Amino acid sequence: xxxxxxLRETCKVLYSTSEEQNRVTVxxxxxxxxxxxxxxxxxxxxxxxxxxxxxxxxILDQRLTRRRCLAEARLLAKCxxxxxxxxxxxxxxxxxxxxxxEWIEGCSVRDYIRSIESSEEYEVLLRRLMxxxxxEVANLHKNDIIHGDLTTSNMMLRNKNQDDxxxxxxxxxxxxxxxxxxxxxxYVLERALASTHPNSEQLFxxxxxxxxxxxxxxxxxxxxxxxxxxxxxxxxxxx
Length: 239
Fold this sequence. Notes:
This protein is of the alpha+beta class.
């Protein structure tokens, strides 16, 4: 038996064993359900499951589920290869629409910001966090990784350490060189901060500054970002 075959058989055993483990629902969205479970003894992991959509034709639903599941798994694998911060990919079953990945112990950026709002060091901590976010988003974009849903809920602080930001939920992610898509990524993040954390809106400039310093070729993306921002404001005015 080759090394690859041996690894494949080991995954099958672990996978079948995981079915007997208790699953704790963490989050339920329109497209997927996220569970905390385990495939390694004593080690928690995250299971992202895309359940069947009964309102769709079964064959179409299976094809879409398989395609989206594989696309997200490949993106996670690519991020790992590039050394970008995302959960480690453990196992994927595209037929069932399931992805097993590393469980990130910590809290979301959204929860962290809310937890420090009453702190005397709020502004100092927030400035540091915004700088770190800009640097990590730049690392994604310089490698042509588009997250697709950059919100503070989709960024985790490993062990609540704001210097260790991990991006999660790449369900809408893609690999593309498009400056427009990178600019939209930034705009989504800006709007998420403005709507969820009103007091941090003015500090988004620090994120852009850090983004610019971390990636020398970011000027064209930032120019496009201003265009995207202007279009967004016009739509808001028109309604």
